[in-house]
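INFO batch 0412 | record 1 of 1 | parsing
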Amino acid sequence: MALMNDADLLKIYRDGNKNYAFNLIVEKYKTQLYWQIRRMVISHDDADDVLQNSLIKVWESLDTFREESKLFTWLYRIVTNESLTFLKKKRNKYIIPLVNVERQLVNNLRTDEYFTGDEIERKLQKAILQLPEKQRIVFNMRYYDEISYEEMSEILNTSEGALKASFHHALKKIEKYLSGD
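INFO prediction complete | emitting tokens
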């Protein structure tokens, strides 16, 4: 069965076939959402947990989705916020500074049995983890998911100009890291 467009999925949902429509939405977007989360929290197990929490929020909120943005944008906003909340709780739980959280994420990357990238991809991921949180999110959304600045602006509630600047600074920092300067 070909994936339906969002308007059709929402129509099925609004027509009362909520479970069926929700399952179709999850099937259509779960991989993209998982990887958005995974790039933020690094660990496969943590990403699975955050995805589950995000999907629960989607289920609880789908009735109130007003379609002022695309379904994909709305879903991305939820998983991004859930990922940020997870990272914040992790920092607060262990009372560790942000720098140490980044170091822990790099260590998780090193020992992650699910990481299938080669050494170049591992080095890129380490460079990305050196970025401030906002630059890391913007870089991942633009580089991996090719999300437009307009959509990112809706997801992150930030101006397009600020997002372009964040991406530019992130790119320069990654280039510097990868060149060994």
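INFO post-check: The radius of gyration is 17 Å.
INFO record closed
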